[in-house]
Amino acid sequence: xxxxxxxxxxxxxxxxxxxxxxxxxxxxxxxxxxxxxxxxxxxxxxxxxxxxxxxxxxxxxxxxxxxxxxxxxxxxxxxxxxxxxxxxxxxxxxxxxxxxxxxxxxxxxxxxxxxxxxxxxxxxxxxxxxxxxxxxxxxxxxxxxxxxxxxxxxxxxxxxxxxxxxxxxxxxxxxxxxxxxxxxxxxxxxxxxxxxxxxxxxxxxxxxxxxxxxxxxxxxxxxxxxxxxxxxxxxxxxxxxxxxxxxxxxxxxxxxxxxxxxxxxxxxxxxxxxxxxxxxxxxxxxxxxxxxxxxxx
Length: 297
Hints:
This protein has 297 residues and is an alpha/beta fold. The protein has helices spanning 12-19, 33-41, 51-57, 68-82, 97-110, 137-150, 164-167, 170-183, 196-205, 225-231, 241-260, 273-279, and strands at residues 25-28, 47-49, 86-89, 114-118, 157-162, 187-190, 209-213, 235-238. Residues 1-7 have low confidence and may be disordered.
């Protein structure tokens, strides 16, 4: 097993910092520990936990309804499952600056390597929907400063997301991004940009570590990972990709089962029992010892 996949939780933030010094990193979204294991097995270097995908898995919309303690349980399961540096959505920080500071401490304790805060008014909306509202730049900077001061791991990566492009314009997004970096954010996340040219413009106007969101069915066109890297982005998240794929398969399978009354015809589409046990590193005849997933050879 690669040592990076077997690192203690307290070193994962440092591992992420080290990896960010290299090529652009892809971080697919995990909405439970099993998906996280599959991400590690597939050979990815980082994992992402979306607030939206976590809410969806609970049967809820992405409007900030998952409590902080439940999100921390999710972080624990995902990090324990994959052993990868994990970036976590913190929505609007679960409240004011003091609550944002607590969120930072709790996320670190749960095993996260990074978190991102957004500058929307609560209740927030998905970043690729219209009708969003922003808090003031000053209020967001106060939250960022509180989180930066609350870090119990100096390597923890604090990411500030701005939704200003979709609410105001690119100039406002750039102004906020630069202000957030000055306030203590390690990385800036410009949400809902509309073209490669906009991503390039933002990178030029807000130099430093940058995150791009490559979600489907939103405002952003599909841009390859290498193109983001060439524009100066360090980390690209794919927040709901695995969940969307899984749910389409679930819906199709349920319809087939309802119509036929048997799951036999679905067997070729299923992960077998043996494949599941392999992913879990589980041998029924032996004592099971929890360990992160090993990358595929």
